[in-house]
Design brief:
Elements: E1 7-11, H1 18-29, E2 32-35, H2 36-44, H3 48-72, E3 77-80, H4 89-98, E4 99-105, H5 108-115, H6 129-147, E5 150-153, H7 159-172
Parallel strand pairs: 1-3, 1-4, 2-3, 4-5
Helix pairs in contact: 1-7, 2-3, 3-4
Length: 173
């Protein structure tokens, strides 16, 4: 396989498998892996839920912007982003100019199945998860589609299969 010199950015909704696929993909490409949410938690020393509770969505988005700006400036990385990062125009521009954007598609049914026991998702607390996910999908899906260089379906597929699709696309493009 040819060497991929550009950074790889994984976008998509929560539960799409960005972190799991990102770790595997980074190994396959001999790149470093980062997850923007994990990096924010490490830097702050607290959970995302705590940040949301204390600072609200605005405070979290500013931290997310800073983390993605710093991480995307590095070389030879695969970066898994938070599902809502694409809502900020500044983040979209950074991702477009600093690497290849891969949209990890997932159906609502698969999202619900993958997230039903996950208590660490601030967006799903205090409401009907299905209604919340539908609303987020309606807002974000057109943006994911617009900025992605490549889209890959993740429903009912193994990490290896999803990575194989991404690697094949990278090889051909």
């Amino acid at each position: 396989m040819k060497t991929i010199s550009k950074n790889i950015f994984l976008i998509g909704p929560m539960g799409a498998g960005k972190t799991s696929v990102g770790r595997y993909l980074a190994k396959a490409l001999n790149k470093h892996f980062y997850d923007s949410d994990e990096e924010i938690e490490k830097k702050m020393g607290v959970s995302l839920s705590w940040i949301f509770d204390l600072e609200g969505i605005g405070g979290y988005r500013q931290r997310e912007f800073k983390a993605i700006d710093e991480l995307s400036a590095m070389h030879d990385i695969v970066l898994s982003t938070g599902g809502g990062c694409v809502e900020m125009k500044e983040i979209r521009e950074i991702l477009k100019h600093r690497g290849i954007i891969i949209y990890m598609e997932v159906s609502l049914e698969t999202q619900l199945e993958r997230l039903k026991r996950d208590k660490k998702r601030p967006f799903l607390q205090g409401g009907n998860p299905q209604e919340i996910l539908i609303k987020l999908w309606e807002e974000r899906e057109p943006i994911y589609e617009d900025i992605a260089d490549f889209s890959v379906a993740t429903d009912h597929r193994s990490i290896q299969d999803v990575c194989a699709d991404i690697l094949n696309w990278l090889k051909e493009n």
